[in-house]
Amino acid sequence: MKRLPTTLVLIAVAAAYLGATLLVDNAYHQLIFTLVLVWACFGLSWNMLSGYTGLVSFGHAAFFGLGAYACVLGQIHLGISPWLMIPLSAVLGAVAGLLVGLPTFRLRGHYFALSMLAYPLALLYVFEWLGLQEVTFPMMRENPARYMQFEEPRLYTLVAMALLLIFVQLTRYVERTRFGMALIAIKQNEAAAEAAGIDTLRWKLRAIALSGAIAGATGAFYAVVLLVVTPVSVFGMLVSAQALTVSMFGGVGTVWGPIIGAAILVPLGEILHAELGAAYPGIQGVILGIAIIAVILAAPEGVYWKVRDFLRRRGEGAGPAAPAARSTAAPTVTDGSAPAAAAPARDPDSDVAAAQPIPAQPCTGEVILDVRSVSRSFGGLKAVQNVSFQVRKGMILGIIGPNGAGKTTLFNLLNGFLKPDAGQILLNGVDMAGRKPHELCAAGVGRTFQIMRPFMRLTVAQNVKVGAYVKARSEAHADQLAADAIARVGLGDCADKVASVLTTRELRLMELARAVAGQPELLLLDETLAGLGHGEVDDVVSVIRSLSASGITIVIIEHTMQAMVKLVDEFVVLDHGEVLAVGDPQSITRDARVVEAYLGKKWSAKHA
Amino acid sequence: MTDLQIHLEAFLQALAAGVLVGGIYGLMCVGLAMIFGIMRVINFAQGDLMMLGMYVTYFFFVMFGANWLAGSALGAYLSILLMMPVMFAVGYAAHLMLISRVTGRRTASLEGEGHYAQLILTLGIALILQNGGMMVFGPQLLSLRTPLSSSAWEIGPLWGDFVSVFVNKGRGIAALISVIAIVALGLLVNRSRLGKSLRAAADNPVAAYYMGIDVNRAYRIAFALGTCITALAGGLLATNYPFHPFVGLEFVIIMYAGVVLGGIGSILGAFWGGMVIGLVQQLSALVLPTQLQNAAIFVFFLLLVTLRPQGMFGRSAERT
User: Which residues contact B184 (CB under 8 A, 6 or more apart)?
Assistant: First the structure.
């Protein structure tokens, strides 16, 4: 119901815009019409990388400038028409994106943002040094249209509009496929995305390549419109800032943001410049600055999001169903949790299992995970030393130990967040030590986190869907795997809630579902019961039990001994990074060394 | 003079220039580190606040010029001293009226913790300062000419009768004042109660808030101090570097490069970051054409940051 109107609206707006250009005779105003579209395209390029992944780039002028110079130099030296050079510049931009992304994606947050600054500025000085201070397109009197040299300025607007529509469709395609989901997951929580099977580096590289391609093509076209290219006009800091400004002003992470931003800021700046620039040089910048500050104080998240939230609030009740349901979801959390809690309890298997204090028979299946002498230190601290144990198919293995024993570090080694200094981690006989988390996820290792890492702005269904992509063949298949996983943990009636309104119990279950959606053979649960109340612990334990019953092998870290003794088949006890004891729950709880490690020497001496 | 001596002299001269320029860059970076390191706000207007500091210094300098201090070196340094409280007040007011609205606790709910809004806001401030500066001060180049700007100390000759290093007196004094200012700031941050509240607010604003520290006030003072220190660097630079309303653009990038090199959050690191940039810039002139001096800075910056992502003095800690 929603897709078609958006496309229609898009076409109508584009047609109206082109119609409006017919009403303008002044060549300068016609140029403004084109420039609005150019900067909207550039804003979309920035938005593709920074808007969706949250990695703010201050250096998009690098791609823009390379495209611009490629276009003008291509025509001068090789006689290639801009019609061909614009797509070639897109390719060049994509390659530049990959070359920039490969080293720079090692950095995070502010470091990434500021390092991106260096690329266009280094290029700026290099191009000046090469003597390309001012390069002009040669006039083609013979066949001007073949070289995109139009008498009629409105034709430039038409070409710009065609480019913009292509980029808008690209962005919308990304938004609604796993590409966009991967980027949004990276933005919300990169570690969780990686653990959910998303190859974060690959998706980020794709995003920067696509972003660079759009910027390259836009830069090439911009050069054609202005006829002259200078290092400052295409590599300058103000060019990068322009991409940022239009996108952030309009709203980040949506296809409409850069378009709205460009449509407001570009004409405002240009008209102020034309009307007042000659009389009071500088006043246009001051007024533009004041306007930007005023709007951003009123709408810090950007014009699009502000307007959308305002409309939704007004339209609540009578308005579209989705936002209304979302906002009323919060108060009914307690109502919603009752049936969800009941669901797993109904499972007869789990009831039987819960009644037994100790599992009847120890598992004797084949070894699925074989950890051999794994060690890892941080500086002088030996967090995990020489740890070996085996996990057999279908069992629930509990890893216990006092705080700082190295439990979470061990998990990070098992699912690839950390690389072991020594030792092997054999998964079904293959050594996986040092592989990346998404590879381990694809190989069948799911994981939840001690400190929960939900994608707060996504719904439960979307959160879980992110985890399903690793095994999904198509969008529909991913939806189905996600729905199955949600049903398995009994969160069916929360599926459309946004993660940020969930209770701790629901979040824990959602993380479980996200891990389960990737169809893991082996599930690593890091303190899944932490922060839960008494009744809630039983809920989650019975879900874990039913997952185990359905054939998933489980390794769980936990502090709550009571719950663990009933749940697990075997314990591995860690202390000071070493394996203290391995054995079934009964023998472990009686082991003097274990008691000592947990409760101290005095206590164990007194109760010996 | 042998070839070796010529090269040695050129090298020592570049080294001296690098240390002197690096000292001022270091001070600028420290000013930014106060803001960026403590508040984690990317302030694009930092260079333009420095530009404002240069013009305020110039204003005092001209005022003295009409009186008994005309043309003397003392007038320039007195002007810089008088400029500092003015710029502290400017920074304080900018935070109070503008920056505080998009930082701190009220932005926690925003996308990206309000970083987008902060970026745009400071870009807006930068636009106003640059263009407002253009309207008020005009586009012409100015500088604070003192007798020291055009005289130098000679160190040497170091090798027989040759190999002397000349140190511009204006720059020498500027570098000296930079070091004094950084030592004073270091004492303030590490020893005083105010410094403790600044460090606490930087480390964990929420915990600091619960411990009864007025985090917003700490941020405000950090912003004002940062503005004031960068402006001090600007004032010192103005004694031997001509400036104009858009001069901030040239330096804001150097400042960020220095802060990132030093490691975000480390104030002393920022000084060394700035110093390294000064050295790279001046020493690269020995082997590269002058147009590529600045390109060398950025290439060096990218290399170092990719090899050591947390900067020279930063620590990386991430928990899963």
Answer: none
Q: Which of B40, B110, B134 sits opposite A301 (nearest CB)?
A: B110
Q: Which of A110, A125, A245 sits opposite B295 (nearest CB)?
A: A125
Tell if the CB–CB gap between A417 and B112 is shorter than 8 Å.
no
Which candidate in B43, B252, B290, B298 is best for mutational testing of the A interface (most A CBs within 10 A)? B298
| Fold assignment, B21-106+116-150+168-307 | ABC transporter involved in vitamin B12 uptake, BtuC (1.10.3470)
**A453 to each of A194, A494, A521, how far by Cα in Å?**
11, 18, 21
Domains annotated on chain A, with CATH: 3-313 (1.10.3470), 349-452+521-606 (3.40.50.300)
Helical spans, DSSP H, in A277-370: 283-298, 303-314, 321-329, 333-346, 348-355
Instruction: Please report the ipTM that was assigned to this predicted complex.
Output: 0.83
What is residue A229's DSSP assignment?
A: E
- Contact of A456 with chain B, judged by CB distance below 8 Å, is answered with no
Q: How far apart are CA B117 and CA A163, in angstroms?
A: 29
Chain A, window 508-527: residues with a beta carbon less than 8 angstroms from a chain B beta carbon: none
Digit-by-digit pLDDT tens for chain B (320 residues) are 678 888 888 888 899 999 999 999 999 999 999 888 788 888 889 999 999 999 999 998 888 776 666 556 778 888 899 999 999 999 999 999 988 888 765 555 555 556 777 888 888 899 899 989 988 888 889 888 777 777 888 877 777 777 788 888 888 888 999 999 999 998 998 888 888 888 888 877 778 888 888 888 888 999 999 999 999 999 999 888 899 998 988 888 889 888 888 887 778 889 999 999 999 999 998 888 888 888 888 888 888 888 877 776 665 544 44
Residue with tokens 């994608």: A455
- Which residues does chain B have within 8 Å of residue A257's beta carbon, measured at their own beta carbons? none
